[in-house]
Amino acid sequence: MDSDWDLNQMAKALPHMKDTDSSQFPPKTSSPTLSPQEHGWAKKTAYNYNAYTKNVKGLASIDEVPDSNSKTGISNQDTFGGIATGDWHNNASVYVWDDDYGDVGPEFPDLERELFGSDLHVKSGINFKNLSSIGVVQEGEIRIKPIFSFKEAGLHPVMLRNVELAGYDIPTPIQQYCLPAVFKGYDIVASAQTGSGKTAAFLIPILSKLMGKAKKLCAPRPNPAKFQPGIDKPVRAEPLVCIVAPSRELATQIFDEARRFCYRTMLRPCVIYGGCPIREQIMQLQKGCDVLIGTPGRLVDFINRPSLLTLKRLKYMVIDEADEMVGTDWDQEMKTIMSGEDQEEGNINYLMFSATFPRHARQLAREHLAMNHIRIRVGRVGSTHADIKQKIIEVQPSQKRTVLRDYLLNMPPARTIIFVNSKRSADDLDDFLFNSAFPCTSIHSDRTQREREDSIRAFRAGKTPILIATGVSARGLDIHNVMAVINFDLPSTMYGGIEEYCHRIGRTGRIGNTGVAMSFFTSKDEDLGPALVKFLLETHQAVPDFLADHIPQGFDASGHGDENLLDFEDDSDVEEEQAAGNSYSDSDPIINQNQLNEAGYEAQGKTSTQAESSDWNKTSTQTSQNQNDYPLVLETRRVSQNETPPVSRQFSTTSKKCDTFHNHNNNSLLVTEDNSFDGWNETSLFPKSSNQSGW
């Protein structure tokens, strides 16, 4: 571990390390014969396979049975995060509303501890302030004024309290824009770096907006606090919110976040996914469901059973990790889900989120989202951030296991995710590490759902702090204090390549926390080399000698250079819209002369007069004849929380060589060939009409 990368706090986050100094363990020069436990790792734990086949209702004693009549949902049995040992995640404890409460429910300390315990979710780290320096780009005709604190966001008082309990102090860049966009009722397409708070960016505003009118919007149902399964008549689930996730693990994780943010409200979250008995999930839905989270296959299964589920009350449809579900075998399921069933067109707000947004995902957005939807990009799409220390070492395939074992012995014992490319590799590596006395577990799609849930639960609790996973099975996992990600196998360019690498290493270094990503590079990974080098240079990290041939001009091996020289795919809709002839014309609202538009460009809390219909001049002496050549990109950057919001910048994407432009007060803006800017000092910038004097 690098001396400037202090990760001891993550080591101390493990239960057996809370009062231990990791520096006391033997250094890397110590004898290799020492056991993992002598290096500070917990004892390995064998699976209790009897628990997998045990039905919760058949537990040994009545004290072990979940108390369905308890308002807190907490029983005497061993639980973690409100989930009983041996139970399914869809039966996790939720706040049970009583119709006698009024508008706000009382606090339940036991449930609060289960939902908001420090080991259950990622809290902002020491480098959280660095997130505020990430550039934000808004594409499309609508401009959103960001918020810079949760208190100014207009949240429901209960939601504001839940945000505080969850440890969220300052909104991340994606949250700064998504919260006001949701409150204003816009559809959203948003991409942001992994670990940037995307889940909270849609849950917080959606649930907060529904809290004040839940009694009016929610479907009729029996009093949840007095509901008796098998005696009271079950109801059909009529959710107000539907959230779709590509993996079971991500679906249950979003469900956990929804359980926290629905605390002390009548909004009832449920999760449905494959691999577990459908009867268990039917029983949960029959108690009523306002927020439904699900995987595509199981969700369509329920949609096709109208007696159990209808989307006629749906107000919000959220697609998380959209790139994983579009252009895949789930295309037909996604079309069924996105249609909103029997909903009238225009009644649903659509929100799509991902760290990467390939072209087929953007096409889906254009088919279903409103024409005036918000498009937000935080940082470069498909990028990572500097809080993750990336290391790439060259390893012979036959030496991978030995190198991995030595690396684990020489790092502080902490939560670590090891990625492999196949299910067989996951099983084999799990056996190797377990037989080497490491506390490990593994997940992949061939494991039973109960095994997968048990593995994730044990990893979250720190009982088995080493998790071996295939890439898809761990997509979107957000686990507290993951110190290291190890790519035992780098992703092939045929199966995700650098985008998959981005998702994998994003399991550490989340929300301002620091982490390490170690990758084993072999001769089979040569085709990934150029993209890896650009990824390292983008965050100013050193390039190993064996990849030095891929360093572009303008950079050195230490990672220093001008990152603007790096050639990344823009992943923007601008060029596609221009090619399709969809550039904004002078009849579009955004450029109607002297028109005020509350949904328009807002840089410092003031709505600007809209731009005039004529285009920016391409040079100071020649006027563009194309009235459709309107500036399509507006970029807003914020360097620190306390800094005055800077001027937003507009430039024509079709004019690369430009001179000085002027706004309505004749203040100048210099745009050079490389689209750099200088000399702006006004809130808003306007194109000058070609028939006016001064050109």
UniProtKB/TrEMBL annotation:
The entry's keywords: ATP-binding, Helicase, Hydrolase, Nucleotide-binding
Catalysed reactions listed for this entry: ATP + H2O = ADP + phosphate + H(+)
Residue ranges with Polar residues bias: 22-36, 580-591, 605-629
Pfam family, one: DEAD
Catalytic activity, EC: 3.6.4.13
Region Disordered, residue ranges: 15-39, 572-591, 601-629
GO molecular function: ATP binding; hydrolase activity; nucleic acid binding; RNA helicase activity
Domain DEAD-box RNA helicase Q: 148-176
Domain of life: Eukaryota
Short motif (Q motif): ranges: 148-176
InterPro entries, per the entry: DEAD/DEAH_box_helicase_dom, Helicase_ATP-bd, Helicase_C-like, RNA-helicase_DEAD-box_CS, RNA_helicase_DEAD_Q_motif
SMART domains: DEXDc (SM00487), HELICc (SM00490)
Family listed: Belongs to the DEAD box helicase family.
UniProt name for this protein: RNA helicase
Organism annotation: Blumeria graminis f. sp. triticale
Lineage: Eukaryota, Fungi, Dikarya, Ascomycota, Pezizomycotina
